[in-house]
């Protein structure tokens, strides 16, 4: 066992310097992500007891993200990417401070906090995605995302339980708000540490400065449709666990415990899959994640009780990392070939990809709000996820088409290059 551990450490140390720095930066920031994803939504739910406000908060976040992607493209012409990446992490702490300073959770206050958090995510993900694309290649991307997912999931065991019971303990003494304030301060400290680690890298800005294009290769539009399907779940799934557990289990401590069920198994599994799998396995990994997500949605919709929530969280802990482990390498492999074929910078595709995600997120959140408005909150919480999960199963076919057409396009480009060489000779 010790020998195997040393072998894995040696394998990590054999990766390029920037590869290791980016992984370590994201690991430090991973301590913040469960707080942002789960407990901020729980705070809105606790303070307003209105699931619709939680979804509206999420919509404002998702509105801020694509706008900041666009702003980030302009700022990359003037600032080093490390500064913008760090700014994104720091803004998440600022957004939480804004939220905690609100005396009443009005829609205006929620909107301001949400837009700020959206800007945080925008700067973070725009630069993180570009750097991940720039420092990895198709052969080690499964390993990169498997490694990140391993640490993210391990951290997701500790943080939700610790913070959840901390909030619940202070809440019993009448100090829930002060508990959230302490957590907000810790979040800000961690974002500073992540920024310090980030500056140890030698990351370079994109070379090409034009990022906005209106026409793309047909293969790209298929990927945008896949992004839309992925966004459907994101539009509701980030806040769904918090709303379900706060309503059916009742407290943040239970929320943290439920988040931790099966997380150790999921972490080890994701690392092994990322370590041993290659490009040929991505479709099966992706399909596995989507099927598990559908099973999770069915458990929640059919049971809609404490057991249903726990089973939902258990399957979700496996489904989400499986989907991401396959999705990002598929996305990046398409960007690799199209950037070369269309002679464009990679960031142009990352920026445009966010538009596809945003449309999906908006439709996913709108599905919940419409069901809640025309039927009931219970109907929305039970069946919106099932509707989205069933629609997402179509992603398996879309991903299969994308991967096949990418290979065909790659062969065409190789033939063109070979013909040019022959003509030159």
From TrEMBL:
The organism's superkingdom is given as: Bacteria
Entry's Gene Ontology molecular function annotations: transmembrane transporter activity
User: Where are the membrane-spanning stretches?
Assistant: 21-43, 55-75, 84-102, 108-126, 147-167, 179-203, 223-248, 254-273, 285-304, 310-334, 355-375, 381-402
| Record keywords, A-Z | Membrane, Transmembrane, Transmembrane helix
User: What is the protein named?
Assistant: MFS transporter, YQGE family, putative transporter
User: Could you tell me which species this protein originates from?
Assistant: Chitinophaga niabensis
């Amino acid at each position: 066992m010790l020998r195997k551990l040393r072998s894995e450490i040696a394998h990590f140390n054999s990766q390029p310097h920037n590869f290791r720095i980016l992984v370590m930066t994201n690991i430090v920031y991973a301590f913040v992500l469960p707080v942002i994803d789960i407990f901020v939504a729980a705070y809105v739910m606790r303070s307003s007891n209105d699931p619709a406000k939680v979804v509206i908060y999420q919509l404002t976040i998702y509105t801020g993200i694509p706008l900041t992607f666009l702003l980030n493209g302009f700022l990359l012409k003037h600032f080093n990417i490390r500064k913008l990446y760090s700014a994104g992490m720091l803004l998440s702490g600022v957004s939480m401070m804004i939220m905690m300073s609100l005396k009443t959770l009005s829609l205006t206050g929620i909107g301001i906090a949400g837009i700020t958090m959206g800007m945080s995510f925008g700067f973070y993900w725009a630069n993180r995605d570009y750097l991940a694309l720039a420092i990895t290649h198709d052969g080690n991307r499964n390993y990169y995302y498997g490694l990140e997912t391993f640490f993210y999931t391990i951290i997701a065991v500790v943080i939700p339980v610790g913070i959840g019971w901390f909030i619940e303990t202070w809440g019993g003494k009448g100090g829930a708000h002060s508990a959230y304030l302490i957590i907000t301060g810790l979040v800000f400290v961690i974002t500073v540490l992540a920024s310090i680690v980030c500056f140890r890298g030698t990351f370079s800005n994109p070379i090409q400065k034009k990022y906005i294009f209106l026409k793309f290769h047909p293969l790209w539009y298929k990927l945008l449709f896949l992004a839309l399907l992925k966004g459907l779940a994101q539009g509701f799934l980030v806040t769904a666990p918090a709303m379900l557990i706060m309503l059916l289990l009742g407290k943040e401590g239970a929320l943290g415990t439920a988040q931790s069920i099966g997380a150790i198994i999921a972490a080890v599994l994701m690392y092994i899959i990322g370590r041993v799998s290659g490009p040929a396995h991505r479709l099966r990994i992706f399909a596995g994640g989507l099927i598990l997500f559908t099973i999770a949605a069915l458990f929640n919709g059919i049971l809609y009780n404490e057991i249903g929530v726990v089973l939902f969280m258990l399957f979700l802990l496996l489904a989400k990392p499986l989907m991401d482990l396959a999705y990002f390498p598929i996305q990046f492999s398409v960007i690799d070939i199209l950037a070369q074929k269309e002679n464009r910078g990679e960031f142009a595709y990352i920026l445009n990809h966010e538009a596809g995600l945003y449309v999906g997120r908006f439709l996913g959140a709108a599905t919940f709000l419409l069901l809640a408005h025309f039927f009931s909150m219970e109907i929305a919480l039970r069946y919106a996820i099932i509707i989205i999960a069933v629609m997402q199963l179509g992603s398996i076919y879309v991903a299969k088409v994308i991967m096949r057409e990418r290979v065909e396009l790659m062969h065409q480009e190789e033939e063109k290059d070979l013909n040019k060489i022959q003509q030159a000779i």
